[in-house]
């Protein structure tokens, strides 16, 4: 016998559409939006708070035109390193050797330019070539030999520090010619005139504000198109206005000091290029995919070895750029150059929102994290705080940033 199924007379329970349920849903969406953006938004808030705090503690000296210029000049090479480091951390790796590579590339440039009399640009090109070769060395052992990046770069830290000593023969070399010094100590001033200030610097600041606003608006439109949560439009406008005001204040101070530092132009170009590389290119998406889920990335057709190799080549290149900037800034090459630079770059990346487990982070976030470290260091120096206390404060800030990331991940896992 065949059984005949009678249609059920029960109706499916409709979703709760009471006002209380709607309110709860709206609150949940708002809470999700806040949690999703807390990490990134909190960085900017922290930067503003820290700048304001040290501005008060230093009686305004921190925000003086001359000191702002000094911050740019003194910490530019750390920000360059942070760009490469955050890309590695997003991909699930780390590089402990960048300080030694900074020293080695600066040493190679110094030997060619100072000892052997080659033109300044030959030293720059040679330093960049050495950095790329170092990155390829690391990339081979990590990507194709399968040795963890921590071990490879730890060995590289010792290896390239030793090579620096050999290249310099355990002595310091100085000075560089004036053209080489302009890389880190030169300024663009007076290109558009100005009565007591540099109009060109203000123009560049206005262009930066316009670029930030357009980029933010396009990102907002894209998120809405894909039905992702976004902040309210008034809040978006307020954020753009605040950031724009900060940028223009920064440009105004530079314009009333010595103008636009050449090294700041180099840094801005790198931030723009690598920001586009990580967000708009296939390579950038593959880096995020590898760091987020290595197995899934491999199954999706990502050439994991190739991407890992080029991540380290890129880190070597940026370490060489930082080496040129640092040697130009210090007007020479020293065997101990670049000591502990890797820790500052790693701290900048983590404070800027990179996740310990990989797959999360941005170039802009790393820049903000680096600026937080720079402002704290500069502010404490202006206050006359000793180096040991400065190290304690930096360590605590890094620990809090990583703990905050771990807390967010646990909370997100519990919410599921």
Automatic annotation (TrEMBL):
Keyword Cell membrane belongs to the record: yes
Polar residues composition-biased segments: 1-11
NCBIfam families: GguB
Keyword entries, A-Z: Cell inner membrane, Cell membrane, Membrane, Sugar transport, Transmembrane, Transmembrane helix, Transport
Positions of transmembrane segments: 41-62, 68-89, 96-114, 120-140, 147-168, 199-221, 233-252, 258-277, 307-326, 346-375
Major subcellular site: membrane
Role summary: Part of the binding-protein-dependent transport system for D-xylose. Probably responsible for the translocation of the substrate across the membrane.
Topology in the lipid bilayer: Multi-pass membrane protein
Keyword Transmembrane tagged: yes
InterPro entries registered for this protein in UniProt: ABC_transp_permease
Superkingdom of the organism of origin: Bacteria
Disordered, as annotated region: 1-21
Subcellular location: Cell membrane
Pfam families, per the entry: BPD_transp_2
Signal peptide: none
Protein name per UniProt: Xylose transport system permease protein XylH
């Amino acid at each position: 016998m065949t059984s005949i199924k009678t249609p059920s007379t029960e109706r499916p329970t409709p979703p709760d559409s009471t006002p209380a349920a709607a309110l709860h849903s709206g609150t949940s969406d708002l809470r999700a939006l806040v949690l999703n953006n807390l990490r990134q938004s909190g960085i900017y808030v922290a930067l503003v708070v820290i700048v304001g705090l040290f501005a008060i503690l230093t009686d305004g000296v921190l925000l003086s035109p001359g000191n702002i210029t000094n911050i740019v000049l003194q910490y530019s090479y750390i920000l360059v390193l942070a760009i490469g480091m955050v890309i590695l951390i997003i991909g699930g790796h780390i590089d402990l050797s960048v300080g030694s590579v900074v020293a080695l590339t600066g040493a190679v440039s110094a030997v060619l330019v100072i000892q052997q009399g080659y033109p300044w640009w030959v030293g720059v090109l040679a330093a960049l070539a050495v950095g790329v070769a170092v990155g390829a060395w690391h990339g081979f052992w990590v990507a194709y030999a399968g040795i963890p990046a921590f071990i490879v770069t730890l060995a590289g830290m010792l290896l390239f520090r030793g090579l620096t000593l050999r290249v310099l023969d355990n002595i310091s070399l100085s000075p560089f010619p004036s053209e080489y010094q302009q890389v880190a100590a030169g300024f663009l001033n007076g290109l558009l005139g100005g009565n007591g200030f540099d109009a060109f610097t203000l123009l560049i600041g206005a262009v930066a504000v316009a670029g930030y606003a357009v980029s933010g608006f396009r990102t907002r439109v894209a998120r809405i198109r894909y039905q992702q949560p976004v902040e309210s439009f008034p809040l978006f406008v307020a954020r753009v206005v605040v950031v724009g005001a900060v940028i223009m204040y920064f440009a105004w101070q530079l314009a009333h000091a010595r103008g636009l530092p050449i090294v700041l132009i180099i840094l801005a170009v790198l931030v723009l290029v690598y920001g586009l590389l990580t967000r708009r290119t296939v390579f950038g998406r593959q880096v995020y995919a590898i760091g987020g889920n290595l197995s899934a990335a491999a199954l999706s057709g990502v050439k994991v070895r190739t991407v890992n190799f080029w991540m380290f080549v890129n880190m070597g290149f940026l370490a060489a750029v930082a080496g040129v900037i640092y040697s130009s800034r210090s007007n020479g090459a020293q065997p101990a150059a670049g000591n502990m630079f890797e820790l500052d770059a790693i701290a900048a990346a983590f404070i800027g929102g990179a996740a310990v487990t990989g797959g999360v982070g941005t170039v802009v976030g790393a820049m903000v994290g680096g600026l937080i470290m720079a402002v704290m260091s500069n502010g404490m120096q202006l206050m006359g705080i000793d180096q040991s206390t400065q190290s304690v404060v930096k360590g605590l800030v890094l620990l809090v940033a990583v703990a905050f990331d771990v807390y967010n991940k646990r909370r997100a896992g519990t919410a599921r």
